[in-house]
Amino acid sequence: MVTVHRPLDDVIRQLAEVLRGGGLVAVPTETVYGLAADGTNAAACRRIFEVKERPTNDPLILHLHDAERVPQVAEFPEVGRRLAAAFWPGPLTMVLWKRPVVPDLVTAALASVAVRVPSHPVMLRLLAACELPLAAPSANPFGYVSPTTAEHVVASLGGRIEHVLDGGPCSIGVESTIVDLRRPDEPVLLRPGGVPLEDLEAVLGRPVALGPAAGTTTHGMARDDEAQTAPGQMTRHYSPRTLIRLHGTLTTAFASRLPPDEAALFLARPPVEPPPRNWRWLSDGGDLREAASHLFAVLRELDAGGYATLHAELAPDRGLGRALNDRLRRAAARESLAAGSGGDPRSLL
Known about the structure:
The chain is an alpha/beta fold. The protein has helices at about 10-20, 40-50, 70-75, 80-85, 120-130, 150-155, 195-205, 250-255, 290-305, 320-330; strands at about 5, 25, 35-40, 60-65, 90-95, 110-115, 135, 165, 175-180, 190, 210, 245, 260-270, 280-285, 310-315, 335-340, 345-349. The chain folds into two domains: about 5-215, Alpha-Beta Complex (DHBP synthase), CATH 3.90.870.10; about 245-349, 3-Layer(aba) Sandwich (Rossmann fold). The strands form three sheets. Strands 2-3-7-4-6-5-9-10-11 form a nine-stranded mixed β-sheet, sandwiched between helices. The protein has a six-stranded mixed β-sheet with strand order 14-13-15-12-16-17. The longest helix is centred in the last third of the chain and has 16 residues, at about 290-305.
């Protein structure tokens, strides 16, 4: 029986004891809700993989209370310290060379580990109370749409876990940006997320290369059955059950011709009043930050609506638009078809 806990001080202390004892707790972060375990306890982390039905070649991110704790789990180069000073606490994950204290299960048996310091105040209180690095992938069945509220966690995993710590809706709503710093002089973006690429490059004063999984298509990625360098690299991910077709531009003319069992997801509110019941949008004015914070919640809502197909509009490929498009492309990867401005699905992503 799952219990949803309010973030009271005594509750935080009790859940810290659960984690120290090898248990699991679903936790809020500013990005999405995570399923947390002691990141130095291989048996506890194995429960994460079992509950999520997650393949063990997909590594976990370790969440730390502050940057000073990074050297306990990983080597911390100067470039990482610069990025930490600019973006931590916050939605940036760094891939670094790991210390022996980190179990191989956490890192897909690789010599590197992904780490970040989250900014959600409830998560920081829990990290301080348990004094552990917490492995915490998204608190949902592997591959499904990530949860951004405690209610999403209960709906997805309520029969498999005992504790959910409710910290309210996630403010950012998409997972963290992941940058590979194993070669400190050659940073590589592995996953776009809550920190835009442009912001990374401004702090570093140089371009950041795009890894195969961080480009503008789902082609050229590593095989999904290989050990992944970091989470979020697999071709199909963040996926609702509903079939998704992507459009560079979704026109109201095209959307108005959709049958009742198909839905349209616009970036900005379309200028049609009243909008049809099978239309949704991510932001009234097309703001990318607002759109990102709503993406997963809207995908879950539409997935529960019984639609056969969802037509989704891509964002401009800049800023948080890169993260939005990355999630949409992976959600639609089984189709990998984009539509032109009129809605004709002919061009490959």
